[in-house]
Amino acid sequence: MQQESERRDPRDGPSLVDFMPERPAPEPFVARSGSPRPGDAGTLPGEDVLIEAMRTVYDPEIPVNIYDLGLVYDVALAENGDVAIEMTLTAPGCPVAGELPGWVADAVAAVDGVGEVEVALVWDPPWSPDRMSDDAKLALDF
Description:
Shape: globular
Strand content: 5-15%
Number of domains: 1
CATH superfamily: Fe-S cluster assembly (FSCA)
CATH architecture: 2-Layer Sandwich
Largest sheet: 4 strands, mixed
Structural class: alpha+beta
Number of helices: 4
CATH topology: GMP Synthetase, Chain A, domain 3
CATH class: Alpha Beta
Number of strands: 4
Radius of gyration: 20 Å
Order of helices and strands: HEHEEHEH
């Protein structure tokens, strides 16, 4: 079966697609955990400690943690101990899409020295297996 764009001659005039409104990108889903740090809370955790916390979170269908799967796009630690994380999923239809960001937020909020944690689920750029660590590729026979 040919695609519409392959069959359609532009001289035939506009198609229904030409009249469809452009859809805005979906807003990211955000999960939050933790609480503000007291002013005298001591030193901030290092990025390696935050990564180890994220490595405790697994997608129930994949035997590799979310960090090594390459689902975490960005981690930012503020001077007050708050943490902002951008992550994605292997597929938009993931059955735990509404829960996984909360699991990540809870795991990172449990780290000593962390204040409030916000995890935003984003879809751009799309995830691909190229983002996986070498260990994850070995574990999944890639």
